[in-house]
Amino acid sequence: MQSTQINWQAEARRLQFDGRALIDGKRVTTANGETFRCVSPIDGRLLTEVARCKEVDVDAAVRAARNAFEDRRWSGKSPVQRKRALIAFAELLLRHRDELALTETLDMGKPIQASYKADVAGAANCIRWYGEAIDKVYDEIAPTPASSLALITREPVGVVGAIVPWNYPMLMATWKIAPALAVGNSVILKPSEKSPLSALRLAELALEAGIPEGVFNVIPGFGNEAGSALALHNDVDCIAFTGSPRIGRQIVQYAGQSNLKRAWTELGGKSPNIVFADCPDLDRAAKAAVSGIFYNQGESCNAPSRLLVEASIKDAFIERVLDLVPAYQPADPLDPETIMGALVDEIQMNTVLRYIDAGKREGAALLTGGERVRVETGGFYVSPTVFANVDNQMTIAREEIFGPVLSVLTFSSTEEAIRMANQTSYGLQAGVWTRDIAKAHNTARALKAGTVHVNQYDEDDITVPFGGYKQSGNGRDKSLHAMEKYTELKTTWISLE
Known about the structure:
Elements: H1 8-14, E1 21-23, E2 26-28, E3 35-39, E4 46-51, H2 55-70, H3 79-95, H4 97-108, H5 112-133, E5 140-141, E6 148-156, E7 159-163, H6 169-182, E8 186-190, H7 197-209, E9 216-218, H8 223-232, E10 238-242, H9 245-257, E11 262-266, E12 272-275, H10 282-294, E13 306-310, H11 314-324, H12 346-361, E14 365-368, E15 372-373, E16 381-382, E17 385-388, H13 395-398, E18 405-411, H14 414-422, E19 429-433, H15 437-446, E20 451-454, H16 481-485, E21 487-495
Parallel strand pairs: 7-8, 7-10, 8-9, 10-11, 12-13, 12-19, 13-18, 17-18, 19-20
Antiparallel strand pairs: 1-2, 3-4, 5-6, 6-21, 14-17, 15-16
């Protein structure tokens, strides 16, 4: 059934949520019975009470994961057996597509058409892809002298802790749990307290698919409680985190303070999108600039939040951008026609509004938007916002806003564009628009970013690694490279003499 054929308002009234943690294959309350309120940013409605896990609950989850790993109920299965379970897991996501999409929209505020078409489908594809990949990845034999045989093999690292953000709760979770499970690890997932519900449902579906009890556990709670306990735990072998640089630094410190566990971080960006005067299609570039920053309400780490336009076309290009903005006015996320919904909560809404105030105070020209809208709903909505006359010293050009705010900067030469683009502590993604193939290649090489898009922005595939340079973190999600994060490399040297 298409998303437009479903009465999402009626489905939302029927949907019930279980906010308990899932540890060792069972839904459980916390040791002290504490919960926190899970509120929908659409209209402020209470969705459910969610388990507020703390150190004792993390201990229980780690113990379950360690027991599952050591008795080899999952790690001991053949790649083909793990493949079958993961493919069944992916199929269950698609079978429960309506429920999962609605959960994501109610919990996080994104439009239902995005949850239905992109998030659930992308999560299922990720799980299926890693399931399909695991029995097609080979180990190695080193080119040693004939008197020796050196086997190079990868083994699961053990117990993996995954801490994921609130902006793509289900998709970010699968980017971590799918490769970690595929290679044979046990996993403990800590979803954001702002959007914990889809993660809990994923763990139930994993059990139904045949992934054994204790192999995949979910501990909702706050970062300074459940998250820090997981990162500090001496029996966790690897921690994978997506979120802010501030928390990412803490995660790395916790890894060092505890057992020197592997720590992988993806920490956001302030991505430049460079439009040269010889851009082959200004209309297409404008559409990509607008959709890139306003998709998911601007709550995307790879959003092209800095639009760098060559001075000679600045006015004409800004006019194209402004013509497209009205389509992104926030509307009811449960309406299948809506393309921009609510920010995740009141805290994030106020953060975005403070950045908008900073832009105006520091001298940027507010061209459109910049205010809270749909106040009468009780939800948290901000109109799509565009600033011009921005420079890289302004707060809105330096700091990640994580909201629907576009900053337009201008340049006069390729060298200046590259300098401005790289003048950031981040290095996640970038865009280049030009018909000159040499300029495209040379600019892409000079940009300090994990991904550079040329004459498009944000095309995506599970086969392509995702991650960044500098303070955008280390390691890569997606692609076969993600498996490297969750394995140990072993050499077995055999004498044949």
